[in-house]
């Protein structure tokens, strides 16, 4: 039965009581990471821990297995009870017997969680032989069964593969096979689908739900994405700043959330159904100003194009051996027009070539064929010197705000450099004025000028990167997955900022993203890419409401839609 | 106000690094130690100190002044010899030279010879010829510090420059650099040094050139790898998108991000080169015999140690250890100062 009512809930499998964890910083100061967290994971049920980065969700879950960093300090009043053993105070030997056997875990990055020099079979067999004492042959047979169960094709061949032979989705399946090898009673899944494409994400979720039923396991599912939780969880805990904000059955969370933070999380995520003018942000809700803005009517198209791409193609040379040349077509025959002040969304899964399109337009890669016309001038023909004046007109904001700012430059240096290169402003005094004005525009304090990138959060850094582009007053801004690495609430802020800037400066955006909901919010036109080709291109209304191509429909169907009562009933 | 802001915003990486270094007590005291060594070396080169290091100021193996006087075996031996002396026999009747003694005495009286007064002790002891060990060490630092610091500087510069070029440009430039690197590393080290020495002749400058021109390979390899890694980073791509020139991307953007590698390599090279100079001098490829260096001093003091005369080894060894430690800790401090994440 589905224990949503809390009445017929069976005895808890794992019970966490008053968990408090801090981290010892330099100088012996203990900074609290998790405070007074209590929850119970029922038999055969799924508990979801939801929160943004820094909310303490991973720390809470990892403390169950004792997988905490060396500088962690656990509050002596904390208890984690499993089978009447306190996991926080038991002998390491005892814990080792439980780890991997009764409680196992899968991580976010399957590529770094698998050992690259051991075959898949060796890695699955290891825990079988360790915990269950199986012999070599029996372990191998069981490994093949497990690979078959997690949906790897040709398991008897794949067992001899190395991790790099497998795709990201298959690697995560192998991780799951390892985790369920010893029939654990509890499986902890720490953001298991975050690094995967939407279509793969959907498959993995279905696999996990199926395995949970078949093996009568409990699942502790950690994620930042509330929408995912609706499809898989029975109970949901929303965490923020190390504290539990709301703990309720999944239906209540989605249908009648009580805590303003939960409401905010639900509202700031762009949805496929609606297209509001502005996204609400967390602060609105925390201040009690939570409200949904009105929908924005589709904007008129048909102005003169500022950027026109014709038949763009990019081949990469790959290593084909000593005397052989092998080529990979990353992008084939991509064409589009972008009007001033409008946004083109480019969507596709990883490997679809969408990032390469952006890089090639910027000439960060040289194109193999095609033309990029900016105000009628083909940028791909220009030499470095002739390209220079156009560089300031087209700018790019990258995905990873932690990598796109030079860690050894102050924000002042980062903002002044483009103006110095392009001789914008008469002297540094004037340029500093501009920089301070732009910092104000992207909601950063003026003293940021003297600080270094690492002193800022991800969202703030992304705003700095945007400010750097704005120093040159570009006409076209390419946003390459610019909000993908950000938390939902921060994502909403940055998306709002991008919209405001578009209205203010008449910027045209090429918005590259794997996230269809975000593209739905920001784009006027959408281009769907798959394996380097354009699958479909139309205005955003048409793509989302009446997609023509099968691939577009498949992509749209795999987006998590939050809590749908019928779906949960079917799964339960 | 505006001028103040300009002043506050524009200090570059190095100015900020210096500001941070000044707050690091350990690094600062190491800087002082290194500065004292370099100052002494320069003063000695200019002849301000230790210019009379060759004067035989003390008796052979004069004891350090701070040691209590031990019973002197030499004096005791001569006293014993005096005690055994027997009365002399007058041989003037049969001595064929006897008539000339008076003449010689007169001629000797016309010459005045002053024997230098040799002191029994010296501040930090004396060597085999009674030369002051302290002055000798200062004089020896000329060669050793000069060789260590200058050669390490040259090697680091060459390695960094070539590594930056190879890593940043890749392709043909990289192929060429790799070829040069492979040729250099494939020749046995001592043979390579012999070849350079044969062409350049002997002398301090030669040693510096030899070590500088052969020691860059390790720095090159590491810096190249760093550049390979960094040139694909998004902040470098962003700089390219902004239109920043190649030279600025290489040296203003990437170089500061590889400075930790360069600095650590530099400090390792300083230590290694001071030691290599010892080996080279020992092999006869180093400094000429009439020049004193820490290397030649250490070679001498091996024999002295057997005789219990430890002070020359102790003084030179301490000086060397202090300098090497100070250089290592200083580069450590510089590395931290250059990393804005470590405040």
Biggest pleated-sheet summary of chain A: 6 strands, mixed
Count the DSSP helices of chain B.
14
Determine the CATH superfamily of the domain at 30-56 and 128-338 in chain B: MetI-like
Q: Biggest interface between protein chains, with counts per chain?
A: A-B, 37 and 29 residues
- What proportion of the residues of chain B form beta strands (DSSP E)? under 5%
Termini Cα gap of chain A: 7 Å
Quaternary organisation: heterodimer
Look at the helices and sheets of chain B and give the structural class.
mainly alpha
- Calculate the mean pLDDT score of chain B and round it: 83
Helix content of chain B: 55-70%
Task: Please name the CATH topology of the domain at 341-365 and 382-557 in chain A.
Answer: Rossmann fold
Radius of gyration of chain A, rounded?
26 Å
Helical content class of chain A:
25-40%
Characterization of this structure:
The complex is a heterodimer of chains A (572) and B (343). Chain A has 22 helices and 21 strands. Chain A has 572 residues and is α/β, with parallel strands linked by helices. Chain A has a domain at 341-365 and 382-557: Rossmann fold (3-Layer(aba) Sandwich), CATH 3.40.50. In chain A, strands 7-8-9-3-10-11 form a six-stranded mixed beta sheet, with helices on both faces. The N and C termini of chain A lie close together (7 Å). Chain B has a domain at 30-56 and 128-338: MetI-like (MetI-like fold, Orthogonal Bundle). Chain B has helices spanning 2-9, 13-23, 25-45, 73-83, 101-110, 133-169, 171-186, 189-200, 204-214, 217-230, 234-242, 246-283, 294-306, 311-338, and strands at residues 58-64, 119-122. Chain B has a two-stranded parallel ribbon with strand order 1-2. The model of chain B is unreliable at 1-10 (pLDDT under 50). The A-B interface holds A 359, 362, 364, 387-388, 391-392, 395-396, 398-400, 403-410, 412-413, 416-418, 421-422, 428-429, 432, 449-450, 452, 454, 465, 468, 472 and B 2-3, 5-6, 8-10, 12-13, 16, 233-235, 237-245, 253, 256-257, 338-341.
